């Protein structure tokens, strides 16, 4: 929209959506660097793991026990069963990243749908789900997840993803609900209603796109959080099954004091990789949050 | 204000009820029963069967649940079969260790966070502020177990400044000053790890409170009266921003409980978190149910504490 003034031509064309994000990332070089770095890192890990032979890497070779890095072609040495740490690191990283992505997608789809429904309809549905959410928020989640993991008889990757998703939708639903509540009172929603648009279309074609910037932030930060939770559970021994190494499984070898104090190549690379992933993804998430919130923008 | 508190306490009852029901049903799904641990090659299967009937193992679940709740109210959570101890005695010992760890952690959290938050807010956009923001970002993003391991490796094994596990060295006479010092010495590294992870929220809150306060009318009035900025910060702004910080106490405690599982596992610290992991691994389900209930109760208590402090500090949120 352009307004003509007598002398000056005033542009009132506020940048929207993706433009704001691009502008924000141009201003914040570190965020741009993190974004490119993390994306490249994930892509490289996924491509490299596709060319690796997991059975070969996980085969036990006792003669090569605790091989030091750089010896016998082991780039990062070997663990106490003679398994190549470099190969395990890449495969573990791939598993951790893919699982975190799966949890993020499932939990957020559920959280967003419920949040919008609660915020849009309000009233009884909203009250009911808010009571449930308030209750779930006070639960000792980590302990209950651990108990669930030990109970389920046929426990595998899919089960882990579903268990974690069952607890991760809660905060998203709360956030989306509060935004949808205020968005649902806007004029455009009322206009749609009077025109006879179905509730479903208003919620998911009208309100949802208006929350998109917020949701991108939420997805990014949740992704980081889920990497942390999965690796944490695997570290404690209640995450991925032993046949599927995760970054957390590799770090958990360090609970053996000998490994921790003298065999740094077994646990340190995985710890650093987790650290880099967490710092990078969180930094991108915070830059996105600044972009989504007009008050905090850099430019 | 009392109305608010009573209302919140009453609300806790159904929450505890639902939690206990969930935990009870989950525990029933666990393989094995409290007598599995008693079975030796010489045990007569008929005797075990008898014990099971006596203990009501074949009763319908709601009757078992009823007995469990009645016993729990009397402080009897059953018997741990791996430790051959009453669950309440077992948890009591561990709870004390976790309590000292939590206390020291909480003190450290406030000791680190308050000065850093104040400096960041006062010297907004300077190098100090930027370094503190960077610190709080890193401590927010780093997972508990990664920081714990790195600290244990550097300060425990490389520099050998701190002991690497346990609560006290063997051979130190209990009750002496040396004994208490030794115990504190064992607490420092785990408590420090937790404290660093928990400072983020408080630092960021305090920083933005102070930055906001700078433009408030009461600060402008004080300045126009000629009060030096130093005193305004110390007497006016600090007091106003500090009260809400006190309300974070409850959340700090709640967060500590989740973190204690990781921290106690890493630092070999015999507290409730470590006991929980051991019990899950050995399927000692009377201990597991009691611990989950206790953690759930403490988490509720933590949020209650925060709400109470908030309603004392900020009268607007009280319910009449």
Please characterize this protein's 3D structure.
The complex is a heterodimer of chains A (299) and B (320). By secondary structure, chain A is mainly α. Chain A is built from 13 helices and two strands; from the N terminus they run ββααααααααααααα. Chain A has helices at 17-27, 29-50, 54-57, 85-121, 123-137, 141-151, 157-183, 187-194, 199-210, 212-236, 247-252, 257-262, 264-292, and strands spanning 2-4, 9-11. A two-stranded antiparallel sheet of chain A has the order 1-2. In chain B, 74% of the residues lie in helices and 1% in strands. Chain B has a two-stranded antiparallel ribbon with strand order 1-2. Chain B is globular and about 90 Å long. The N and C termini of chain B lie close together (8 Å). Chain A binds chain B through residues 135, 138-144, 146-148, 150-151, 224, 228, 231-232, 235-238, 248, 251, 254-255, 257, 260-261, 264, 267, 271, 274-275, 278-279, 282-283, 286, and chain B through 15, 18-19, 22-23, 26-27, 29-30, 137-138, 140-146, 149-150, 152-153, 157, 164-165, 257-258, 261-262, 265-266, 276-277, 280-281, 283, 288, 291-292, 295-296, 299-300, 303.
